[in-house]
Design goal:
The protein has 293 residues and is an alpha/beta fold. It contains 8 helices and 10 strands. It has one domain (11-40, 64-291): Alpha/Beta hydrolase fold, catalytic domain (Rossmann fold, 3-Layer(aba) Sandwich). It has helices at 11-15, 18-27, 46-55, 96-108, 136-150, 167-175, 223-231, 273-291, and strands spanning 33-38, 67-73, 81-87, 112-117, 155-165, 192-195, 210-215, 240-245, 262-264, 267-269. Helix 6 (167-175) links the parallel strand 5 and strand 6. The chain is globular, with a radius of gyration of 19 Å. The relative contact order is 0.17.
Length: 293
C-alpha cells in the first residue's frame, strides 16, 4: 500500500520570499472567510432515469450530502475573478497561518482561493496510514467546491482551476481524468496543478491542461511512476506536462521542513527552496494561460 506524507501550502512563503509576502499581506485584502458547502452528488444515470419512467416511480433522492468547510480568499472588488480550489494532503488541511499566506499570494495575482477541508467535517484526522489511491469522496469534494465557487457572483464560473498536494494531487488528477467523473458535471475545471501525486496510468489522459510537479528523489510518490505514465500516454485529451526537480524530495514545497526534514512511514520529506520557487512559477504560468491574466 502506498502511504504518502502530507504537505501544506507553505510553498508560497518560500517561493515568493518572506519580505515580498509580508508586503502582499499588508497591501492585499486577503482576509479569509470560512465558508460551508455540500459535497457534490452526481445526477441520475440514463439507466436510472429510464427505469424510473418504466416503473412509474420517482427517482430516489440522493443521500444527504456532507457539508464541507473551507477558507475563502478573494481580491478586493466585485470581480468576477478567476479562482483556484486547493486540496490538502493525507494529513489534513494546512494551518491557518499557512492558508493565509497562500491566500495572499493568489489574491496578489487577482485570483480567489478556496482551501478545502475534507477531513474536519468528517471527523477524520489523517488518511496517510489507511488509504492508497484517490478516495472517491475527495473527488466529489473537489466538485462540490467547484460548484460552490461557480455560484458566487464575484467568481467567474468558467475560470476555476484545481491544485492539489500529494493525496490532494491524486484527487486533482482524478477529478479531470478524461472520460471519468468530469463527464457527470456541467461545470468543469479549467486546469489542474498536481504537486507530487502518485502517478498511475489512468491519469495519463486529462480533460483540461494539467501539470505534475515532483522531485526526482521522492520516495513516497516516485517520479519514475510519473515518467512511466507519461511514456505510456495515448496522446488523447488535453496537454499534460511533467516537471521533475533535481535533488527534491517529497513535500519539497513545505517551508516548515526548511530546517528539519522528516521521515514518515519510511519516506523522507524535505523542503527545497529552488524547487519550491520553480514550481510556483510553473503554476503561475499555467494559470496565466488558462485564465488569460
Amino acid at each position: 500500500m502506498r502511504r504518502a506524507t502530507s504537505t501544506s501550502l507553505s510553498a508560497f512563503i518560500a517561493a515568493i520570499g518572506m519580505a515580498l509576502l509580508l508586503a502582499i499581506v499588508a497591501a492585499a485584502d486577503a482576509a479569509a472567510e470560512t465558508v460551508r458547502f455540500p459535497v457534490a452528488t452526481t445526477p441520475p444515470t440514463p439507466l436510472q432515469e429510464r427505469l424510473a419512467r418504466e416503473r412509474g416511480q420517482p427517482l430516489a433522492a440522493a443521500s444527504p450530502a456532507v457539508e464541507l468547510t473551507g477558507e475563502l480568499y478573494r481580491p478586493a472588488g466585485t470581480g468576477p475573478f478567476p479562482a483556484v480550489v486547493s486540496l490538502h494532503g493525507c494529513a489534513g488541511p494546512p494551518s491557518r497561518a499557512v492558508a493565509d499566506a497562500a491566500g495572499a499570494a493568489y489574491v496578489a495575482l487577482g485570483y480567489a482561493l478556496l482551501v478545502v477541508d475534507s477531513f474536519g467535517p468528517r471527523g477524520v484526522t489523517q488518511r496517510c496510514a489507511t488509504e492508497s489511491g484517490v478516495p472517491a469522496d475527495r473527488i466529489m469534494d473537489a466538485y462540490g467546491a467547484l460548484i460552490y465557487l461557480a455560484g458566487l457572483p464575484f467568481i467567474d464560473p468558467d475560470r476555476i482551476a484545481v491544485a492539489g498536494y500529494s493525496q490532494g494531487a491524486d484527487t486533482a488528477l482524478g477529478a479531470v481524468k478524461l472520460g471519468g467523473i468530469e463527464t457527470q458535471f456541467d461545470r468543469k475545471f479549467r486546469a489542474a496543478i498536481a504537486y507530487f501525486p502518485y502517478c498511475v496510468a489512468s491519469y495519463g489522459a486529462v480533460s483540461v491542461p494539467a501539470v505534475i510537479l515532483i522531485g526526482d528523489l521522492d520516495e513516497a510518490t516516485p517520479a519514475r511512476a510519473c515518467r512511466d505514465m507519461m511514456a505510456g500516454r495515448s496522446g488523447e485529451g488535453a496537454p499534460l506536462r511533467l516537471v521533475v526537480y533535481p535533488g527534491a524530495h517529497h513535500a519539497f514545497t513545505s517551508a516548515r521542513l526548511r530546517d528539519k526534514p522528516e521521515t514518515t512511514y519510511g519516506y523522507r520529506s524535505e523542503y527545497n527552496e529552488a524547487a519550491a520557487h520553480a514550481a510556483w512559477e510553473e503554476e503561475r504560468a499555467v494559470l496565466r494561460e488558462v485564465f488569460g491574466r
